[in-house]
Structure formats: C-alpha cells, structure tokens
Amino acid sequence: MIVDRGHNNHREIKSIGRCEVVQSFVYLSSLIDNLGSCENEIRRRIQQARVA
Hints:
Helix content is about 35%, strand content about 25%.
C-alpha cells in the first residue's frame, strides 16, 4: 500500500504492480493518513476507549 500525500500520484507509483494507493491505513495500532495530521487518530482512539 502507498499513502499518497495530496493526491500527487506520480507515474512511478501508478506503474508499481500489486500496490494500492490508499487514503489511510492502520499500522502498528496507529492510523496513518495522507493529510499527515493526527486528528483522525485521536478520534479513533477516543472511540476505541468508549467501546471498551
């Protein structure tokens, strides 16, 4: 998976086989998104705490 910042899809990224360009994903329990902010990560963790 490739997180593309600001939808700046370069030709090299599109030509990589078996890769997917995504807006966000969870890696080692942290949400990583293409905006580089932590707002969605904070909201996600608050929601996880409410569920628990």
